[in-house]
Structure formats: structure tokens, C-alpha cells
Amino acid sequence: MNFDLSAFAPIILILGLYLLVAPLLPVKKTWARSSVAIVCVLLGLRYVYWRLNSTVLPYDEQFGIEFIWIWFVFIVEVAIYIEAVVFFLIMSRYKPRHEEADAGEAALIARGVYPPVDVFIPTYNEPPEVLEKTIVGAAGIDYPNLTVWVLDDGKRDWLCGMCETEGARYLTRPDNSHAKAGNLNNALLYAEGDFIAIFDADFVPHRNFLKRTIGLFDDPEVGIVQTPQHFFNQDPIQFNLDLTKDWPDEQRLFFDKMAECRDAWGVAFCCGSCSVTRRAALRAAGDQYPTESITEDLLTTLKLSRAGYKTRYLNERLSMGLAAESLEGFFVQRARWCRGGIQSIFLPDGPLGPGIPLLNRLLFFPWSWLIQYPSRFVIMIIPIVVLWTGLMPLHFTSIEELIFYQFPVFLTYYLFMRWMLPYHYMPVLSTAQSWFATFRLLPTVLSSIIKPFGVPFRVTPKGNLNNTEGFDALTFFFILIFIVLTVLGVIVNLFPETDILEAVQFFPVALFWAGLNIITLLLALLMCFDAPRKRSEERFDADEDTVLHGDGSAIVRVCDLSLNGCRVSYSGLDNIAQIDIEGVGLVAAKTLRHFPWDNPTYTSLKFIHTPETRRALIRKLFGGGYSNAVKQVFTGTVIGKLFRRMFGPPLT
């Protein structure tokens, strides 16, 4: 059998264009982004057209299970294409707001008139070590006219005392109706500021948060300014794969890239925490946060939009929060977002209700929540169905046609992501993350469609309420079953005596597909084990001079710093008693251990705080000068780490 090498022509053309043209395209220019997005959409449309006319409609068998299966797989592929088209549409524009924020901040300072701002910190059951950072950080915002409100649905006496100490106002209510939205609405009865800044109980604002955001409200049509949510710890995916310094957290794609692109289309939306809302805009929309959904933030944007106000997105690191620390917290959070997004389509204030332009309906519709997890599940089961039943997912023509029509789509989508999102996407790893979540979130998708309401709001467990050494047995065993079925299906069809798949020419395709699925599922399997977190406080890399005091004094280099202690270059001092930290002052300290085997050698210190030094160090660490973000991704390093994680010893 002769193989037609011309089938590779589109792939060669795409690779050539990428290597020659992509380096010349300015990724931040709308014309360049739109051009590349159009190419991706057209190639996808070419593939869908071929699928329909060459692999679906030619199927001439009578209505039956194979007929249904072929059409089902095709409809799923069309849904994936629709999700991709919406994604490319969103990413085809780009609108940074830094210059507007600069101008707004300069005008605010020049006027010298600072409109009153109420800072809301809604809380329910977060422990003291989580809330302390948020309250201290909020009280330390560099803005002369603000009131910090701690909205306690947990009714805790110790929190009332903490608020008195830190200069925040403490507010509670008779009941906890409507969860977070109800808590915010109760606070509206007492707050009198022109603007409302909201921080979840585990988010610490930087000192310049309000000066960077309030100026954007000089545009009278702006109702909400949303800023990105960054984290000072690693999420469970990073931690469980041992990629804490090599792979960004799961939310970076949205907050670093997509949200700014949505703003360019006028469809940025409030994400709750780290946002500022104009009180007059909220009053125009009823002076209440929506209580119909468990995610009030998206509905707030839509209500204000109907009242004539816009949501803007300022892509600057202006706060740091605590990412979900365990798989339990990770899935509680994602399930809430998923259900809330799907609930919105059933509500009159949602994207399908009156008063929203057609394009905005398209871009606010929860395509990703509805399509992503069902389609990923189907992709996982197709090789299993093919290998164990012989049911073909399409009327097979030839491998050459698959290469000619399908492979260019995969290649183009991959190259698009590498060009536009070089540090946020690796095909197998990104897919493994999505598949891992599928087993837990697919039931949420289905139940939300069938019965969208009636499930209570669940707070993401954080701090000492969190089980950080868990094991997701349900997901683990589902993934294991899928791996075993796929492997056994391949083995059964390798031998003529036991093979089930009659279409022998399709077996190489099924084998390739099964192999990719097995690799992806193995990576997802590793995510099921919560690696132990040994530190009670996150450490930040540092590189600054300081002075140690003990039996004499010595200038040393601080290598890393946390609220509990630090690591410094070896000083040779005995009986270390104090360390002089810039911006904090003298902090009592004691030596924990030396590291004489390192080169250079280090000393580890533990701090003995007074209330003043602890407060000052919180503001130093979380006020904007430090970050644990992964700034650059090296593919080789990530692959090496994943290989060691898969075949090396378990994390301890």
C-alpha cells in the first residue's frame, strides 16, 4: 500500500508559516491576534465540513447503535469547535489599562480629594492565621479615606477582638441567609462610602490597591473595576506534581490573559474578590448584590450592565491570596463556580435575560462549563468503545485524509497557544489537568443542568480547616479503570485470535489515540495524591542585606523570608538575638539550624514577634514587594520533573 505523502502538505505549510511569520507578528496587536485567530477558526471549519460530508453523512447503515454513536461523536466535536471559536474570538483582542490607571492615579493625587471607600471582608469560618493577614493588609492600604468592615457570618468573639486591635469595624447579622451575597447586602445597610472594595477573607490587598483602581472611575460609565487574583502559595496541581517553581497555578490563563481580552470586547466581569464597585452604580441596579445564584459576582456585572455601567479589568498584581490548599478545597471551589455559571442561564438577570446585546450574550454564556467536561469525558471513552466493541466513531476513509484534515487543526491550535500563551500551555499537561477535574466536575455539570438550584453555598476550606494530606480515591479509581480498560483493549486487538476491531486500517489511529490517553491519564493519576505541606507559612525568595545582632553584629544576605522566620547567609555569629529587617525594624530571633554543607553556607532563624513587628512584617511580605509566582516555564524542566514524579520516589 502506497502512502500519499501529499497528505502532509498542510502540516508543512503551517509549520513553515509559523517559523517564518510568527516571530514577526506583534502578539499584543489586535490585527495580529485577529489574523491568527481567523486562520485557526477557518481550519477548524474546514475540518468540521470534512467530518460531516466525508465521515458522517456517507454512513448508509440503518438507524442503530453505530449510527447513533457516529452522530453523537460528531456532535461532541462540533461542541468542542464552538467552544474553541468563542475562545479564539475572545483572545483576538487585547486591551491593557495600565496607562489609564497611571492617569487616574495621577489625577487622584493631584486633586487631593479621595472619595470614601468601604472595604468589605466577608468571612464565615476562616481561622485566625488566614484572617489576620487580610485585615492587617486592608487596614494598611495607602489611602486616606477608607473604612474596613469585617463581615462575620461565623459570629466569633476572637474576631471581634482582632478587629478592635487592627482598627477595623466588626459586623454580624441575625442569620446567614443567602450566604456571601446576603452578608454583603447586610453590610450595605451600614456602609456610606462612594465605592466598595471586596476582598475574600484569604486575600491580602497591596498598599497601592485603591490608588491604582479608584482613578479608573473617572469614567462615569465604569461601575466595577476587577483586578487579577494572584496567590502566595501553590495550588494542589502544582504541589502534587512537584512543579511548585516550574508551572503556573491553574488560574493564570484566565487572570493573566483571558480577562484582559474580555475587557477589550466589553465583557469583563466581576470575580468577587479583589474588585471595586461604584456604589451609585449598585444603587441604580437595586442596591443589592444578587442572591439568586451561588456566584453573585457574574450576576452583579450583568445587572450593572443593564443599568448602563461597564466592568473594567486592570491586569496588575494588586493583591495576593491563598489558593486552595487541598484537593477537597480545589473541587469545592470549582464546583461552586461551575454551578453558579450554569445557574446564570436560568435567571432573568443572566446572559439569556432581556437587555443584553447579542455579542455579550454569546461571550457571557458559560460555554466552557457546559462543554469542557462532557467533551473531555467522551474523548477519554472513544478508544475504549472502539477497542472493546468495534464501534467506529466515524465512517473511516483513510489515514491520509485524517492527516490532511485533522492534524493541521491540532497543530494550528497548539502553535496558536504557544505563540499567544507561551508560559500557560503544554498540551499533555494542560489536558491532564482538565481530565483530572472531569471526574469530579462532570456530575456537577449534569446536576446543574437538571436541577440548577437548591444546592447550598459551600465555603472553600482554608488554613487549619483544610485537610492537606488527602487522597482523592474516587477520581483515582475512575482514572485507574479507564487506564486498565484502554491498555487491555489495545492488547486484545493486537492478536488476530482476539481482535474485536474489524476495521484493521483504523487500528493505528485507535492505538495512537489510546497511547495519548494513557499518558494523559497517568499524569492525572498523580494529581490524586495531596503531597504533604510542611510549612505553616509560605516562604518568599529574597535577596536583600540585613544586620544580625548577637555576640557582635554582622551584615548578611537574606535568602528567603516568611512570617515565621528566614534563611540568611552564614554570619559566624554566636547567640544571635535580633535581626534588623528593612521596613520592619529589629525583630527578636533565634537560630534554628546551620547548613554547613551548602555552598555558601546558611543559617535558619525563627522570629519571636511582638504585635508590632508581626503586623509590619505582614505588610512587608504581602503588601506588594514579594511573589511566589512562576515567571517562566521551561518545557524541558517540566517534562523532567513529570518523569521523575511518575517513576521516582513518592513526595515526602
From TrEMBL:
Q: Which UniProt keywords apply?
A: Glycosyltransferase, Membrane, Transferase, Transmembrane, Transmembrane helix
TM annotation in the entry = 6-25, 32-49, 69-90, 377-396, 402-421, 473-495, 507-529
Annotated GO CC locations: plasma membrane
Query: What are the coiled-coil residue ranges?
Result: none
A Gene Ontology molecular function term of the record: hexosyltransferase activity
Q: How does it sit in the membrane?
A: Multi-pass membrane protein
- Classification via CDD domains: CESA_CelA_like
Domain of life assignment: Bacteria
Q: Cellular location of this protein?
A: Membrane
What is the first-listed, main subcellular location in coarse terms? membrane
Q: Which residues form the Glycosyltransferase 2-like domain?
A: 119-283
What Gene3D superfamilies does its record include?
Spore Coat Polysaccharide Biosynthesis Protein SpsA, Chain A (3.90.550.10)
Q: Which InterPro entries does the protein's record reference?
A: Glyco_trans_2-like, Glycosyltr_2/OpgH_subfam, Nucleotide-diphossugar_trans
PANTHER family referenced in this protein's UniProt entry, alphabetically: CELLULOSE SYNTHASE CATALYTIC SUBUNIT A [UDP-FORMING]
This chain belongs to the protein called: Putative cellulose synthase catalytic subunit protein
Can you name the source organism?
Yoonia vestfoldensis SKA53
